[in-house]
Amino acid sequence: MKTMKIAPSILSADFANLERDVKLVEELGADYIHIDIMDGQFVPNITMGPNVVAALRSKTKLTLDVHMMVDLPERFIEDFANAGSDIITIHQEATPHLHGALQKIKNTGTKAGVVINPGTSVETIKNVLHLVDQVLIMTVNPGFGGQSFLPECLEKVKELVRLREKMNLDFDIEVDGGVDDMTIGLCKQAGANVFVAGSYVYGAKSPKESMNKLQAAVN
Ligand code: DX5
Ligand code: ZN
Question: 9 alpha carbon to ligand 1 midpoint, in Å?
Answer without folding.
Answer: 7
